[in-house]
Design brief:
heterodimer, A: 300 residues, alpha/beta, Rossmann fold, 6-stranded mixed sheet, 9 helices, 11% strand, B: 461 residues, TIM Barrel, 4-stranded parallel sheet
Chain lengths: 300, 461
């Protein structure tokens, strides 16, 4: 990948992956012992198990019964993630592809309508502040409010964060809480490691609940960092519910327009993997800092 | 002058026609967001009661954005047929509603007065109508259009194949096209939303679809839905296009955000007439939907539905081949749930037809709104009864490029069966020749795109 030719980025990625691997193995062992206990205590009888319908590949599975030319269909399937070769009963869907569609939509909706868990935020060491939005419903219907910090939030930030750092990182739920939980554990260490390698001074990262992209402007009215990095959950699609974006901006403030921001989107395990993305974003932060500009104001 | 009424003994006063129109709207999250909606259910009915007494003349004379300030208002008013307008201007909105629904009023009668209507009149009458009123009145009105082939004829229901691909792969797109054709979809257009809005990419996709249509001798037309100026450059460089596409809106300032104006569209229509690959006379394809003006901060304090009617008034100038309404595409800040999306879709279909446009419908949903496939299917069944000209055909309802859900090939086939409707005549003949349809019914092999591997393309014979 041309993006990661930079040797420094590569070494950051290697280092972070090794560290994360160590942590995961430990967590895996703990998790397994918990799972075993649960299984034993809950199920005394034998269970009938069915396959996980979310696992078949949309690039492979052909549902048409007795097709004219199966080889041809397999080739067509390999060309697109579109839901083709679905087959039919009468004019309607067969049952399994119909349930797969409902499953993918359910996953997408759950990503939007759930919250980032307190437990997760504790593990990440992120404290939480809120915008003026009261609940999820208001969050979805009033995009204007998701950019305004509450007075308590400003107070909390002033109390807990050093002012005027070179770089401030914020994590925002946006439209997918799942995207935050899926990507931040890998992304954040890679980003921070990268910024350290560039010798950049980073403020205390924190989490904002019910936030939209421009909330970074309100944050920086308080913190006055040179570069703000905002990690935010993207609106889920049926293909993936866990895609995250990183928005970067040179000295955002009230009145900053969208074209002043740079963005790296499609961060998830099947898109741009979070560790690589973290290291890549660190290199962009460095460029934005050196050029004193972001978005259309800089050539990244 | 203020208008006033009492309801359950309480006084309600309204200070402008714009305010009456906004408050008479059925509840929608976008109008609440814009702080122009009625504050109570009773106030909403009081506003409807006042609206019922206004004349069509008053509505013409009080557009929600003044003539001097807005190109959309000017296009609509300058294009009005004054003679027809004079013959109906005395009617109140209540009388107009009852005239539309009357047994004595046929579809042809409605088509005759269309040219004398402005957007505000159309929006007003829809606000006094229930969902079934909207379906019933719209079902009288047929709008037939012709590009390469003709759609909208009574007894037919057509579809756009929407074979989008996240990387604009021609092979991937054609795989979806074959799946769609095997279900009898595609008689309205084969239309691609490109991921990359560039001239080169637009040329590539236009030529690939046009060549496929020729190779298989399919009686349909092609379109690539990049920005109209991109398509114009593609056609100037020789790309084979049957029509031009563009998203349009109900205020000049919103059209400006979309990068269009009346003069750009005039130029586009002139170009496609000269350089296009279809005889027409209908050569434009517009996409619209309630809420664009709101989400792009160019609503001028007018309600979403009236702005949508203005969009149709603006679009009428170009005699489009198809107008596609995508209510639900923006999100819950404009239309909150299934109920609001269904209502908006029924209003838009009715308003478009009343103004004389060939309305196709795409009641769709994104994943951050409380809507699911069941709401969407309800909407398309109702709209099919109302007589929508066409729907989208998206493989398995999942648009893998735009990340939202729309009508599927399966839904297309089902709606035709449910209501005894047929494809456009020339296209049905082609389906019969291909062995996909017989006597208006899908055959055994329908739904299997590998049928294309065994047949010699008729265009090559």
């Amino acid at each position: 990948m041309a993006l990661f030719k930079d040797e420094q980025i590569e070494s950051i990625v290697r280092k972070v992956i090794e560290e994360l691997k160590g942590k995961e193995e430990k967590a895996d062992i703990e998790m397994r012992s918990v799972e075993n206990q649960v299984e034993k205590s809950t199920y005394n009888e034998e269970t009938v198990e069915f396959s996980d319908i979310s696992e078949y590949s949309l690039y492979e599975k052909v549902f048409i019964k007795e097709p004219i030319d199966e080889e041809y269909l397999i080739r067509l399937k390999s060309l697109t993630p579109a839901r083709i070769a679905l087959g039919r009963t009468g004019p309607r869907y067969l049952t399994i592809p119909w349930l797969r569609f409902r499953a993918d939509h359910a996953s997408a909706m759950d990503a939007v309508f759930s919250d980032v868990s307190d437990d997760f935020l504790d593990r990440m060491g992120l404290f939480t502040v809120k915008t003026v939005v009261r609940d999820k419903d208001e969050y979805l219907t009033r995009p204007d409010l998701g950019r305004i910090l509450s007075e308590e939030a400003k107070e909390e930030i002033r109390k807990r964060c050093p002012l005027k750092p070179q770089v401030q990182v914020i994590v925002v739920d946006g439209l997918s809480s799942k995207a935050i939980e899926a990507n931040v554990p890998d992304f954040l260490p890679a980003l921070l490691e990268g910024l350290k390698a560039y010798d950049m001074e980073v403020g205390v990262p924190f989490f904002i609940k019910f936030g939209r992209v421009p909330v970074m402007d309100a944050v920086n009215e308080v913190i006055q960092a040179d570069v703000v990095v905002e990690l935010i959950g993207e609106r889920p699609g049926l293909g993936t519910a866990t895609s995250m974006s990183a928005y970067l901006c040179w000295r955002p403030k009230k009145g900053t327009v969208e074209s002043d921001r740079s963005v790296v989107s499609n961060i998830h395990d099947k898109g741009m993997p979070p560790v690589e993305a973290g290291a890549h974003v660190a290199s962009l932060v460095k460029k934005i800092y050196d050029n004193k500009g972001s978005g259309i104001n800089v050539n990244l | 002058m203020p208008w006033t009424t009492r309801l359950f003994g309480k006084h309600y006063t309204f200070f402008s026609i714009k305010e009456i129109l906004a408050k008479a709207s059925e509840e929608k999250s976008g109008d609440v967001f814009a702080k122009i909606a009625a504050e109570s259910n009773e106030e909403r009915i009081a506003a409807k009661r006042v609206l019922a007494e206004l004349t069509l003349k008053e509505l013409r004379e009080n557009p929600v954005i003044p003539y001097e300030e807005d190109e959309v208002t000017r296009v609509i008013d300058d294009g009005l047929c004054k003679g027809v307008y004079n013959s109906i201007s005395h009617m109140t909105v209540a009388e107009f509603r009852e005239w539309l629904l009357s047994h004595g009023t046929a579809g042809e009668d409605i088509r005759r007065i269309s040219v004398g209507l402005t957007a505000e009149m159309v929006s007003a009458v829809a606000k006094l109508m229930s969902n079934m009123d909207l379906v019933y009145a719209a079902s009288k009105i047929r709008v037939v259009t012709k590009n390469r082939t003709e759609i909208g004829l009574p007894g037919t229901l057509s579809y756009r194949i929407q074979p989008n691909h996240p990387a604009d792969s021609v092979e991937g797109i054609l795989a979806s096209v074959m799946e769609g054709l095997s279900y009898g979809s595609g008689d309205a257009v084969i239309g691609i939303n490109p991921n990359e809005d560039t001239v080169e990419n637009t040329i590539k996709l236009l030529n690939a679809t046009y060549d496929f249509i020729m190779e298989w001798a399919i009686p349909t037309q092609n379109c690539v839905l990049s920005h109209v100026t991109t398509q114009m450059k593609a056609v100037e460089k020789g790309a084979k296009a049957c029509m031009f596409f563009q998203s349009i809106a109900g205020s000049e300032s919103c059209n400006k955000v979309f990068g269009v104006s009346a003069s750009i569209l005039d130029e586009a229509l002139d170009l496609i007439k000269r350089e296009g690959y279809a005889a027409g006379p209908n050569l434009m394809y517009f996409e619209t939907g309630q809420g664009s003006e709101l989400s792009l901060e160019s609503h001028h304090g007018a309600d979403m539905q009236t702005l949508e009617a203005r969009t149709y008034g603006f679009g009428r100038r170009y005699m489009p081949f198809m107008v596609n309404n995508v209510s639900g595409f923006i999100g819950p800040e404009t239309l909150y749930d299934g109920k609001q999306i269904i209502r908006a879709s029924l209003e838009d279909h009715f308003m478009g037809k009343l103004i004389g446009l060939p309305m196709g419908m795409a009641p769709c949903y994104t994943n951050h709104v409380k809507v699911d496939q069941n709401d969407q299917e309800n909407a398309i069944m109702l709209l099919a009864m109302a007589g929508a000209n066409y729907y989208m055909g998206v493989p398995g309802s999942d648009d893998c490029m735009l990340s939202y859900q729309d009508t599927s090939y399966h839904d297309d086939a089902t709606l035709r069966e449910l209501l005894g409707l047929r494809p456009a005549p020339e296209f049905e003949k082609w389906l019969e020749d291909m062995g996909i349809m017989k006597d208006g019914k899908l055959t055994e092999i329908a739904g299997d795109p590998s049928l294309f591997s065994k047949i010699t393309p008729p265009g090559r014979r």
